[in-house]
Amino acid sequence: MSNPTAAMLVIGDEILSGRTRDSNMFHLAGELTKLGIDLVEVRVVSDDPDAIAAAIRALSDGYDNVFTSGGIGPTHDDITADSVAAAFGVPIDVRDDARALLVAHYERTGSKLNNARLRMARIPDTATLIDNPVSVAPGFSIGNVHVMAGVPAVFETMVASVLPTLTGGVPLTSKTQRIDRGEGDIAGPLAKLATDFSDLSIGSYPFRQNGIYGANIVIRGTDSARVDAAMSRLMKEFDL
Amino acid sequence: MSNPTAAMLVIGDEILSGRTRDSNMFHLAGELTKLGIDLVEVRVVSDDPDAIAAAIRALSDGYDNVFTSGGIGPTHDDITADSVAAAFGVPIDVRDDARALLVAHYERTGSKLNNARLRMARIPDTATLIDNPVSVAPGFSIGNVHVMAGVPAVFETMVASVLPTLTGGVPLTSKTQRIDRGEGDIAGPLAKLATDFSDLSIGSYPFRQNGIYGANIVIRGTDSARVDAAMSRLMKEFDL
Fold it and tell me: Are A203 and B42 an interchain contact pair (Cβ–Cβ within 8 Å)?
């Protein structure tokens, strides 16, 4: 049986304009790998309702889980929740459970729960809330789509809230071996190894360091004995 | 007239597994913004020929320019060139012009041009080569798709080779103002500003620093006088 699959949708003009360097993809990728959920595709789209809804539909149909990042704050450019509701064809409005969280929070902090902040309580019908211990305003899950904030500290805490609720798979065993030779010299024996161990994923990631060409060879698979066997043969082939 | 559009396709299991943090997206986004080319969508897919070909077709149809990153080295997991050829339905083989570059390079360096390295001379029919001053093995352009290496130093030099050949647009003027107030307090006046300046893109990027909530407000547009006017009103609204 193969592992559950996942896709990610990053939403935000600031990523596409080069103003901000996304870090949420790297974080989510690492967390999913630990759980044995295969991240298969990532898309980044701009703050455009139609582009967001189309991507949500495509990814939700294609993968077991979808995670989104960005666009759920109080300002006019935060349009993710409404776009996700449109993608699922469900109504969206300020919801009592989300409003109650915000009311309690702003009473505690002495800020005013104005109309802008109330936007953060807009949650599609049938969605369940995702806990946000950092700044209270919740994310939400609807169908197989998990909608989370873009600010990295908030995104990461929401990921930590959601992941335990998902069905994981068999985590991959991964072994890495650095070889200080050009990839062109490694490639022949490596291709033969990949053919003989076609149940494993064998990747070559070249680098150049202090004028020396080399590559990190990464062998990954769910059966750790097979990973060990492939790694042993690699070491023997290259006299390591 | 609106600016030319672009999409990017990042290819590689190492990004999706969280092993490697992609930096090419951030680099390309910044370079395209300088040229007035709007990066509208980015996708990241795994080392899977069908996924690569499907993404190439979708992005090539949808945008004026497509840039790919990764999978054009000498090892068995470098399958981008063949997948792009499949997407365009054109033959691919070792091509004389690319082979000549490699022959000269390996004669100079004293390494052997073996079969693995010759894979890097596999170029689809009708493609034109992209210069690689860093490590010689070329990228290529076919139709509106520009195929480049994943190693950041090589990717960046190939981007520098390709961009001068493209039609640019009107570069955006961008002004940023930091406001040390919670986004919930900023949101109301900001939404009104965005409505009154609907020809501009006005974004709010929240942060928390030393316990203080604030946001960077970014106003962008092709007409710098309009950007200035919007920024003046923002400053007045918030007594800055």
Answer: no
Residue A212 forms contact with B (CB below 8 Å): no
| pLDDT tens column, B148-206 | 999 999 999 999 999 999 999 998 899 999 999 989 999 999 999 999 999 999 999 98
Residues from chain B that touch A190, judged by Cβ atoms under 8 A, are: 75-76
Question: Are residue B200 and residue B144 in the same domain, yes or no?
Answer: no
Residue of A nearest to B31 (CA): A18
What does chain B come to in residues?
Answer: 240
Nearest to B3 by CA among B40, B28, B29: B40
Give the domain range for residue A10. 5-165
Q: Give pLDDT tens digits for A180-227.
A: 998 999 999 999 999 999 999 999 998 888 888 899 999 999 999 999
- This prediction has a pTM of 0.94
- Nearest residue to B216 (alpha-carbon basis) of B205, B232, B200: B205
Helix (H, G, I), strand (E, B) or coil at A148: strand
Residue A134 and residue A215 in one domain: no
Are A158 and A198 in the same domain? no
The CATH code of the domain that includes B160 is: 3.40.980.10
Q: ipTM above 0.85? A: yes
CATH number at A227 reads: 3.30.70.600
- pLDDT for B1 beyond 80: no
Query: A203 touching B, CB under 8 A?
Result: yes
